[in-house]
Amino acid sequence: MDSLFLLLLLFSFVSADHDAFIGVNVGTGLSDMPNPTQVVALLKAQQIRNVRLYDSDRAMLLALANTGIHVTVSVPNDQLLGIGQSNATAANWVFHNILAHVPATNITSISVGSEILTALPNAAPILVSELKFIHSALVASNLDSQIKVSTAHSSSIILDSFPPSQAFFNRSWDPVMVPLLSFLQSTDSYLMLNVYPYYDYMRSNNVIPLDYALFRPLNPNKEAVDSNTLLHYTNVFDAVVDAAYFAMSYLNFTNIPIIVTESGWPSKGDSSEPDATIDNANTYNSNLIRHVLNNTGTPKHPGVAVSTYIYELYNEDSIPGSLSEKNWGLFDANGVPIYILLLTGSGNVLADDTTNQTYCVVRDTADLKMVQAALDWACGPGKVDCSPLLQGKPCYEPNGVAAHATYAFDTYYHQMAFTEGSCDFNGVATVTTTDPSHGTCVFPGSRGRNNTFINGTVLAPSSNSTTSKCSSRYLNRADNLLKLVMAGIALCCAMLL
Ligand SMILES: *[C@@H]1O[C@H](CO)[C@@H](O)[C@H](O)[C@H]1NC(C)=O
Ligand SMILES: *[C@@H]1O[C@H](CO)[C@@H](O)[C@H](O)[C@H]1NC(C)=O
Ligand SMILES: *[C@@H]1O[C@H](CO)[C@@H](O)[C@H](O)[C@H]1NC(C)=O
Ligand SMILES: *[C@@H]1O[C@H](CO)[C@@H](O)[C@H](O)[C@H]1NC(C)=O
Ligand SMILES: *[C@@H]1O[C@H](CO)[C@@H](O)[C@H](O)[C@H]1NC(C)=O
Ligand SMILES: *[C@@H]1O[C@H](CO)[C@@H](O)[C@H](O)[C@H]1NC(C)=O
Ligand SMILES: *[C@@H]1O[C@H](CO)[C@@H](O)[C@H](O)[C@H]1NC(C)=O
Ligand SMILES: *[C@@H]1O[C@H](CO)[C@@H](O)[C@H](O)[C@H]1NC(C)=O
Ligand SMILES: *[C@@H]1O[C@H](CO)[C@@H](O)[C@H](O)[C@H]1NC(C)=O
């Protein structure tokens, strides 16, 4: 009883009475920025219901009216000093930028400045009073319960962030953080935090494993354990969010929820950023979205929503800095996805979850021996009907391990209905959106006109196809792997018996 009571106490923290959402940041650093109507059309098509703007652009807020989309507007850093001078300047800003748009535009929060403590420390002394001025103006219009006021922080203000239980905010900022947290607590607002496992990983000099940053499954003995709390951390994101909870409780604030205002992964980088790849960006964002929408919470507060805005909607070619800076987007300026998120089973936010339009192919860099072994497995125990790879059949040419394996992998991936892990094959396979079909060889899932195989039924293993399934003629190499092949065939035939 006692320990149950303790547990209840522990988890009675921020109530989990609402579901976490996924939103998207709408940056405007594009040389050919789509107009607000086009932006909103993309948001609607992708079923994105939460956005964060970096300003309070009038045309954008008008375009968002009557869409049902929830909007976080921002006071840009360069307007902070002007707006934050007094109740009057803040009230004036609220009048023109908020009152002018609600309720048609559903503004749910105001993010006052971005990473002020680290990016614009000169403005730090007025930060809390500015939040209070803006809040006062909202109170005066009876909008304070609907619109929350906060300010987005860089996670770099959290020091000693691992183990999370020992984390604390840089003490230099106590004079700002203590009144800020007090304000957030008394107004039922939340801590806004930017969480970038990409940078944590990059700066860690390989101390942080890539898999840990990308939410990929870790070998249990590689999981990070907080020795004080014995909580297990399976990803950097959770560890950073928990570090923020602990840093707040270190200052005696234990009931302020967290919203992650920015998180993401770049899909392209220069030679010093080898992990800024499409694959990694897709893996990170897909896993992040699934993690958030699942209401998984963190080890410290399981089930407590940590809503998150992806950084960000568009690739921004006019952002200065390294190549990766320009490549955090989910879409290009035309609204074409940079990559197709893998969101099976996580609901319908981001409708570019066209998982059904993906294919499983051999990785360019894969070791061919491993590819051959995986091919053997797919055509054997994996129960893929590899008869189209036989000599004289449509997918025999080009007659090579990689081409044949791609066909087998893709068939398996579709047979398994795209489930997680069904396009891996010990790391030699990867998901693509490019249809690998060629000539008369039509791949499962192909949307081509030649859709013989499109609905998969043709390729589903048939109990009548014993002969071709257990034939080894599609195997183009009969070398030292023969044993493995034979083992696979034996298994395959045993299963058919
Ligand atoms: C700002 O306005 C609020 C509410 O009207 C008031 O309580 C507060 O004292 C004012 N602050 C200043 C600095 O005038
Ligand atoms: C704005 O969003 C909130 C939260 O979903 C909802 O309760 C409210 O009705 C919305 N307001 C309008 C005007 O759509
Ligand atoms: C803490 O913040 C101060 C003031 O910005 C800064 O000078 C110092 O480097 C920070 N400490 C660490 C460890 O980041
Ligand atoms: C937090 O609360 C404890 C117990 O009331 C107190 O001893 C401590 O000084 C407080 N810490 C801060 C930073 O206020
Ligand atoms: C979803 O949440 C459950 C528990 O609530 C957890 O076991 C599972 O691992 C979570 N899945 C993801 C993808 O986070
Ligand atoms: C994707 O395929 C699954 C199962 O084959 C189906 O239930 C789902 O409706 C498809 N989704 C789309 C967007 O076609
Ligand atoms: C598929 O394409 C090939 C040539 O491209 C053609 O000969 C064949 O008839 C097509 N099959 C179907 C079902 O359209
Ligand atoms: C599969 O394809 C066949 C032949 O084109 C068609 O008759 C059947 O309706 C399709 N099944 C589904 C589920 O699309
Ligand atoms: C297996 O073959 C028999 C005889 O040709 C046929 O009647 C039956 O429908 C086939 N079964 C399947 C699953 O294709």
UniProtKB/TrEMBL annotation:
<dbReference type="GO" id="GO:0005886">
    <property type="term" value="C:plasma membrane"/>
</dbReference>
<feature type="domain" description="X8">
    <location>
        <begin position="358"/>
        <end position="443"/>
    </location>
</feature>
<keyword id="KW-1003">Cell membrane</keyword>
<dbReference type="Pfam" id="PF00332">
    <property type="entry name" value="Glyco_hydro_17"/>
</dbReference>
<dbReference type="GO" id="GO:0005975">
    <property type="term" value="P:carbohydrate metabolic process"/>
</dbReference>
<keyword id="KW-1015">Disulfide bond</keyword>
<keyword id="KW-0378">Hydrolase</keyword>
<dbReference type="InterPro" id="IPR044965">
    <property type="entry name" value="Glyco_hydro_17_plant"/>
</dbReference>
<keyword id="KW-0325">Glycoprotein</keyword>
<keyword id="KW-0611">Plant defense</keyword>
<dbReference type="GO" id="GO:0098552">
    <property type="term" value="C:side of membrane"/>
</dbReference>
<feature type="signal peptide">
    <location>
        <begin position="1"/>
        <end position="16"/>
    </location>
</feature>
<keyword id="KW-0326">Glycosidase</keyword>
<dbReference type="Pfam" id="PF07983">
    <property type="entry name" value="X8"/>
</dbReference>
<keyword id="KW-0336">GPI-anchor</keyword>
<dbReference type="GO" id="GO:0006952">
    <property type="term" value="P:defense response"/>
</dbReference>
<protein>
    <recommendedName>
        <fullName>glucan endo-1,3-beta-D-glucosidase</fullName>
        <ecNumber>3.2.1.39</ecNumber>
    </recommendedName>
</protein>
<dbReference type="InterPro" id="IPR000490">
    <property type="entry name" value="Glyco_hydro_17"/>
</dbReference>
<keyword id="KW-0472">Membrane</keyword>
<keyword id="KW-0732">Signal</keyword>
<dbReference type="GO" id="GO:0009506">
    <property type="term" value="C:plasmodesma"/>
</dbReference>
<comment type="similarity">
    <text>Belongs to the glycosyl hydrolase 17 family.</text>
</comment>
<dbReference type="GO" id="GO:0042973">
    <property type="term" value="F:glucan endo-1,3-beta-D-glucosidase activity"/>
</dbReference>
<dbReference type="InterPro" id="IPR017853">
    <property type="entry name" value="GH"/>
</dbReference>
<dbReference type="InterPro" id="IPR012946">
    <property type="entry name" value="X8"/>
</dbReference>
<keyword id="KW-0449">Lipoprotein</keyword>
